[in-house]
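Appendix B.2, paired examples.
Example (i):
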Amino acid sequence: MENKSLDFSLNIKNLRDIPFNLYEKDFAFHFNGKTYKTNRFNADLLSPYIRQLHYSDNTINEFYLKLDNTQEQETKQQAVEAKEDYFSDFLKLYTFENTKIDPKRQQIYSQYFYALGNYDEFFRLLPEYYNEISEDN
């Protein structure tokens, strides 16, 4: 056998098999007057802001999510119209399973990601707001 080095890392698919829903719900998001409990790992996945906060103070266990007034009113109105709790659904993205997201959810989830500082996911949901820099543009 030849002595060659190999670049290796665990397969990210392993994350799908982790039972995150069984982890202690030790982190709270406060949004629209409601408290949403999840685990700290999920909070770190969803938000670079929260991840950074945990580097400086690992005891932080809550985060107040604030959208600008226009976005917040639109989100509340859409939820009332659909009688759905979009933020609860949003927190379930930790499964890493492909999920069909209708245009309304794309808009709402993008607002959540933006407010949480997760610009990569924001642009993935709304690619029309992002253009690669090229010679043409």
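Example (ii):
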Amino acid sequence: MTTKTYQVPNISCGHCTATIERELKELAGVFNVKADLDSKRVVVDAKDEAVFPNVEMTLAEIGYPAE
């Protein structure tokens, strides 16, 4: 398992964090997601590095692009 942290400046409320967590947890290979409103960070635990391009694409598609 591997973990990656993303800076996501568009996080502005609890709905944002819930949406991000729900959408990313549906991706194959993602085990856990924690979106934090205060730090505007998203921490993703995945089976391997190959999952992260899909995570980044999904974040952009749902309106929360990572920097």
